[in-house]
Amino acid sequence: MNLIQYKDKKSYPYFILVLILFLYQIIGSTFFYILFGEKIENRIYEMITLMFSQFIFILLPILFFSTFETNDLKNFFRLNFKIKFSQIIFSLIGLFSLSQILGIFISFQDTIPLPEWLSNFRSMMENKSKNITTANSIGELFFVIFVIAITPAICEEIFFRGFIQRKFEKIYTSTFAYVLSGTIFGIYHFNPFHIIGLIGLGIYFGFLVYHSNSIFLSMIAHFLNNTFAVILLYFGIDESSIMSIGNIFSIETFFYLLIYSLVFVFSIFYFLKFTAKKNIYE
After folding, report:
1. Range of the domain at 91
2. How far is the C-alpha of 123 from the C-alpha of 128, rounded, in Å?
3. What is the spatial distance between Cα 13 and Cα 10, in angstroms, rounded to a whole number?
């Protein structure tokens, strides 16, 4: 069975997921380790590796495999520039309120005691993440934003929302397709301590793409979400301190959760109200 015949099988998108994961995590890491050697431990080389790995081992293979799907790649990837200003505004209000809701759940998760080895592993992952996303000058800040925000906004969105979600829509219901692709998006980041937040964002990005029929909306949301985190870190602001909710089990926390939830529902309602009829690729 050749690739053209296999692409219509239900297992095909899962095959692509495993293949891209292998290319990105194994082949990419090996390639850049051979290229840079021990320099790869340097944060700048690590960021260069991260950036080029996404373009070479995620974006390029997906563009290659997509050529077997259709000649109309613009429609397939939903490269639709016709986005209403109201859609952008309400999608970003939804992004902000959802981020706060997920932040509260992550804060609750942080209250759960962990074994020492797991706590040490978490600290190691957080330090590694901060090491990559920290900028020490304006010039470095723009470079970090390009690596941490622009690169995944292009490569990961084309991969998960552009290709995987599109393939899932041919197998499952549209809603299940973006829920499943968003869940896999969260797992793909290999951060068990932030997996709830990552899955939540992944599902939301898929929701935006499906209902707006434009991948650019999720690219904007993805870019701004990551950029906001980088800028906060640059100015020495702990993202979790933005809420300043104090005791996670307090009435104050419940109040914040209620308000953010209402804002999120409000934003979704008006986003759908101003969203044009979908143009689903067949």
Report:
1. 74-273
2. 8
3. 7
What is the longest distance spanned by two Cα atoms in the chain?
Answer: 60
Structural domains counted in the chain: 1
Q: Is the dihedral of CA 223, 224, 227, 229 positive or negative?
A: negative
Query: What Cα–Cα distance (Å) separates residue 136 from each residue in 40, 140, 224, 232?
Result: 19, 6, 20, 13
pLDDT of residue 79: 96
Tokens of 208: 């935006």
- Give a yes or no: residue 13 inside a domain: no
The Cα–Cα gap between 152 and 59 comes to 10
Nearest to 149 by CA among 173, 169, 133, 127: 133
Tell whether 51 is covered by a domain: no
Amino acid of residue 257: L
**47 falls within a domain:** no
41 occurs within a structural domain: no
Q: Digits of tens for pLDDT over the chain (282 positions)? A: 556 666 778 899 999 999 999 999 999 999 998 999 888 888 889 999 999 999 999 999 999 999 999 889 999 999 999 899 999 999 999 999 999 999 888 888 877 888 888 888 888 888 888 888 888 899 999 999 999 999 999 999 999 999 999 999 999 999 999 999 999 999 999 888 889 999 999 999 999 999 999 999 999 999 999 999 999 989 887 665 455 555 667 788 889 899 999 999 999 999 999 885 544 444
Three-class SS of 69-123: CCCCHHHHCCCCCCCCHHHHHHHHHHHHHHHHHHHHHHHHHHCCCCCHHHHHHHH
What does the radius of gyration of the chain's CA atoms come to, in whole angstroms?
20
Helix or strand run (H / E) with residue 264: helix 251-273
